Each structure stands twice: as C-alpha cells, then as structure tokens.
Amino acid sequence: MGDLQVQRGVVAVYSDPGRGFAHRHERATREVIARQLAAVKGLEFAGEYQPGTCYRGPVYLVPSDTLVGLGAAAALGVRGEHDLFGGVVPQAFVATKAITHPLVCADAAAPPGWSPAFGHRVSGAVLSGFTAFARADARRAGERLLERGPVRVKRVRATGGRGQVVVSDMTALEATLDRVEAATFSDDGLVLEENLAAVTTYSVGQVRVAELVATYCGTQRLTQDSSGAAVYGGSELFVARGGFEALAELGLSDETRLAVSQAQVYDTAAVECFAGMFASRRNYDVAQGSDATGRPRCGVLEQSWRIGGASGAELAALEAFRAEPALRTVRAATVEIYGEAAPPPPNATVYFRGVDELDGPMTKYAMVEL
Hints:
Layout: E1 10-14, H1 24-41, E2 44-48, E3 59-63, E4 67-68, H2 70-75, E5 87-89, H3 116-121, E6 129-132, H4 135-146, E7 151-155, E8 164-167, H5 170-178, H6 182-187, E9 190-194, E10 197-209, E11 212-224, E12 230-241, H7 244-248, H8 254-273, E13 278-279, E14 281-290, E15 296-304, H9 311-323, E16 329-338, E17 349-356, E18 360-369
Parallel strand pairs: 1-2, 1-3, 4-5
Antiparallel strand pairs: 5-13, 6-9, 7-8, 7-9, 10-11, 10-14, 11-12, 12-16, 14-15, 16-18, 17-18
C-alpha cells in the first residue's frame, strides 16, 4: 500500500476555440505557466486539454481567454475559482473593456445582459468615456467628449496597447468610425475615452491558487514591437502575501494607493453586477496622467480575468511564497522584448525566446527579487 500514489488531479492548457491568443509566443507562455501552476499545486501537467479524455482526477484548466457562459464552463468542469487560472463571465462583452464605460444615453444600443448599474458604480474609478454598440451612438459619444479635449478610440478586444487611435476633432473621429466594421459595433462595441498625457499605467491585481493568495500593485512599461509601435513591454510588481488588506498595510504612495482603491471598486462592482462571474486571476490596468487642461486624472482602463502579461511575475511570487512560508512580500517583474535581445538573466524563467509567426523575434521572461 505504501507504493500507491493517489492522483489528485491534473493541470491542462485549454485553448478556447476562436477567441485568440494563439500566436506561438502566447502558446509557449501558457504552457510554461501551466507547468508552474502544476508544481505549485502539486499536480501533474497534462498538456493541452482534450475533450472526452478520461483524466485521473479533476482537471485544473489554464484557458487562453476568459471563459464565457457559466454552463459552458461547468461542462468543462469549471464551477469555481479553484478549477482554473483565470475567470468565467456570463456574457462575452463582460470579459472586455466594453464594460468600463456607460452608454451615451438610455436608448443607446446595448447587448443582452448589459448592466447600467455597473457604469454607475464605477463612475468615480474610471476615466470619462462611453461604450457604443452602434455607429450613431459612437458619433454622439465622441462629439460630447471632444468638447473637453482629444479622445482615444479603442477596440475592446485589442490587447497590449494595440487597436487604439487618438482623435482631436470630428473630422478625424468620423474617419476613424468609418473604418470600423458594422459587425464590430454590434458584436463587441467600441470604447471612446478621454485621452491623457504623461501617463503612468499601474497594474493592480490578485491571484488565488491552492491555499496561496497574492495581491499586488506595480507599473507597466512600454516597448516597441517589430513595426515600431509602442506596446506593452512588461510589469514590475510589488506583491504581498494575502488579500488587499495585506497590500494596504505596506505604506504605499498616495498615487499607488489611489490606483489600488479604484481597482477594488471596479472588482467589487463587477462581481455584484454580473451574476455568477468568478475569477482566480484578477488584473486591472489603471492610468494616471493629465487631461487636456493639465488636470490630474486617474482611472481603471480595463480588467483581465485571464492569463496576461503580468502572469509570469504573479507565478514567480507564488513560487517564492510557497518556498518560504514566512515570506510576506516580494518584488517580481516580467519583460517582453521585440527583436534581437541579449540572453535573459540566469535566474529568470524564460517563457519564450524565438521567432513568432506574427511578431518576429521575441524574448519573454520573468524574475523575482526577494
């Protein structure tokens, strides 16, 4: 009997069909993070999830994107936060930045399940803006926002700083809206938001894996991709063992404290306004900068209830907390480099170092500082 081992479950990657994040560097990153999660949870890594396979024990999923539909998630064995690294939402739009802003008026187009209450709840925690599901609504929203300065127009499914354009007048807005397909409005929506200058983007979040809880704040940096565009280049995080209360005890700066409090408002409102949603990985981008008049502004830009750019740092922190039970805080970072780059530091966990089919040569890694 002493030689028998009880299989408690496996960790598997789940590539959600048709929902993106399928480039080579993204697939490689998911696999490495899934292997790390398996080690943290003391489970076996089972590779890509195969429907119909008889796994030995429960399957902990690492999906490529937020899972949509409570029933669809349950069919995969995902019924709570301990069943996946990521989140589950009742409707597809809830997983995008579309929820960040209200509609421009009460009779504006909206998808089934839209929550006017959410926009009201987060109004003090986000920038000025609107979400539009029809071209006419987007035009009306842009006209109102342009009265106060330049407007940033954002596709709601774009990530890493892509899919955005800043317009300064109605002519530029009209030209931008004319390039947006009708299906994009009806299926996804479009965000129009006040544009800030001199921006610092904070990452605020929390991960819950097994008995471990880690909550963090930090800043993002930009880099240039293979086309020369400014895109996400990594995050530097200060991570605390425990919940948001543990983070609040660490003497944060006023700017960081504001970003954390706004992220908490957004997080609480989402859980209470979108029935049934849950997540083990919660990340919020919070922008601080100045508006067209030079006035300081700060607000949550979007949420991420899926594996994301900061997840390498999150896993590095979880590994450190698992290895040292007395450890209360840790600093961790992720780095993304486009083009040829020097080898990562010896103590880094490398997620990808090669040639991506779309982005060309890339290097992605994470590291921790105790």
